[in-house]
Amino acid sequence: MARMLHGVDFSRYSERLYIVGTDDALSVDCIRRIEHERVGQEEIFYIGRVPRSRAVNQPWATALLTTLQCLYHVARIMYLHKPDVVLCNGPGNCVVVGVAAFAPRILWFKRIPIVYIESFARVYTLSLSGKIMYLLADRFVVQWPYLADKYPRAEYIPHLV
Question: What gap in Å lies between CA 119 and CA 130, rounded to an integer?
């Protein structure tokens, strides 16, 4: 995600919201580094920390409960900050963020565009997160031409991440 952020025109998004897992210190450090490189800028950014929707090797029976817990925290943060666009990649919490961004659209409240970027490691098949986000995302980006051929709505942009 950090490499993608270097290509974002921050002047178009003066307030930025980052949602990361509570146990993801690396992403928080990376976000702070990117934001502090913007010396002299008056923009605001907020890092929302949420519990994981599903831990590695967590039984599916308990995953529903932890996913709902994550959804509560994500929805609360998104309600408070009201994002104009959602850019996401990766597993687990990304799907929860996508669902939280898609829900206002269903309720005729607000349409938040969702952009999902599938992992560079996915060459021939989509990840489980990718399969779900393919249904929710307004723009679905893949990094291999085979996936772009296989999924009609996918946009092929090589070497993003």
Answer: 9
